[in-house]
Amino acid sequence: MGDHSGMNGALSPGPGPELQRPGLELQHPGFELQRPGLELQRPGLELQRPGLEFQRPGPKLLSLPWSTEDPSLDRAVEQWLQWDRNPVTRAQIQTLLDQKQVSELRSRLGSRLSFGTAGLRAKMGAGFNRINDLTVIQSSQGLCVHLLRCVSDLQTRGIVIGFDNRALKESECSSQRLAGLAAAVFLTKEIPVRLFSSFVPTPYVPFAVLKFGAAAGIMITASHNPKDDNGYKVYWSSGAQIISPHDKQIVGCIKEQLCPWSASCWSLELSAHSPLRSDPLKDVTRDYLRDVSLLCHHRSLNRASSLRTVHSSFHGVGHEFVQKAFEVFGLNPPIPVLEQKDPDPDFPTVSVPNPEEGAPVLALSLSLADEVQAQLVLATDPDADRLAVAEKDEQNGQWRIFSGNEMAALLGWWMLLNHKQTQDPEQKVFMLATTVSSKILQSICRKEGLSYEETLPGFKWIGNRIHELLKSGHKVLFSFEESIGFLCGGLVPEKDGVSAAVVVAEMATFLRHNNLSLSQQLQNIYHTYGFHVSRTSYVICHDPHTVNRIFARIRDFEGSGSYPKTCGSWRILDVRDIGTAYDSRQVDCRGVLPVSGGHMITFWLENGVTATLRTSGTEPKIKMYVEICGEAGERSNVSQLEAELNAVIASLLDEFLEPKKNHLLGRRI
Q1: Which of 93, 118, 156, 535 is the least crowded, having the fewest Cβ atoms under 10 Å away?
Q2: Is 114 a catalytic residue?
Q3: Which entry of 171, 223, 313, 437 is annotated as an active-site residue?
Q4: Residues 391-419: tens digit of each pLDDT
């Protein structure tokens, strides 16, 4: 890997330079908060033995020069100024205090982070509900205490920590720095830490957890979120992201451990040079590529292929890893989009670093593909766990950008095709999808005699189900979520854009050898298993109260005390509300899927449309997922299906979400 020591907040190879005098300007991004030679802990203040309670009464809180007239907010400000040792974020709160900006203080300090569909995620900057040095230290202390209570051999098994390339200069905050601080917390308890030395794709962390038998893993990333965001994902020993009860128990432990245990928790020197810290990058890369190569079924075709592929890593971590994956498959290396090849936390060439947004953010990739006469475009998101795919129609010269549902149909078919050559008739085979994704896998499994299951939205639910199925001796062939998250095989219980990219390239090579395009094969799949027409769209709403009011109105539609009876001109046959554990399809009307945070209501209409309204777990969005399924063969009128689907979408918007009244901004994916 390249040398990234010049990145903002990079781990220091040795004692950092002295901080400058008041004004809090830093000499360079790799600053140390601990002066060289300063003892990390005063004699007599040793922390208790691992497994016991660690929190000691903190020093007396500072007295504020004036009161906000809110005692709880006053205390939060005092705690922040007492606990935060990062001079930049401490100064941000001090400035707000000096300027008496009570509303901004409340917005930053009035609540705390909680686990959503992708762990902890928020803007970087000062505040208890933001991602910064202090909240990462607090979160790591809470996780550490929870692990010590649950894992008797934690000090043997240790943990794994990885990070992406995010950084926010004005807060002197970077994923690499935060990963170092998380490592320092565990090292203060003499718990071994495998801390990657450079940026890695998110799937590397759960892969390493499984490879080393670690107790847990942490990935510092905000994936495809806007550049000011960052996050903290936690993986259990199963390699899957944590779900209940661990998420709630960890939050409880975090609240017990808010005061940093010691100055050691702030020491990047400790995380860089502790004998208990090791770098797993070389070993994980070797073994990951070995396992990815098992997904390759047509190496001779790959070597002879003339297929030209363009790849964009969206200013993230994916370039080097995708190149290596193509090499082990025997494929020609993809041509990189040079402007987006190298990690850059400012994501300067895209409005948002999310390849799911389609043509506007793929413009550079498509332009380069036209220039070099490539037939295939692949784009991984910044942490390389998701994949967007586009193919050029050689008849009309236009580019087709596949939706996540369309790509899942192709990958599901492809994994099944190759499985049939090597199948074990005694082994039960599964395909998995989230409940808001297309039912195309269900149709394939029904016809081919495979097992199909659905989970709640979020790959953490799929990952945990994969773990259970593999533990029972079953095989998981393919899993996906509609937001371009794919997993081919059971490589790791997490979506993986790197392995998906190289599998798509091999599939395209195979089809090209048989005079077929991806688009043509997709039509063949629909002809065989039934036409599945789906649309995903969303509206943006930054006001949680408005979101809650919208869903409260749906649950008491027009004051009727019940859910809507119609959508447009179509009757609603059934309703499922995950938030209230209601499902009218069940005899007792009690939901089967577990209750989760946020809102998610699904409607089944008389015309065969399934429509779901759901709040995002990572962004200020209300998402709409709508699908209609036609018959296999020639009997389906696709144009009619699409027209009916679009009419339902319009009715959902106008009748249920009321975008004008609620000031919502819309976008179709």
Answers
A1: 156
A2: no
A3: 223
A4: 999 889 999 999 999 999 999 999 999 99
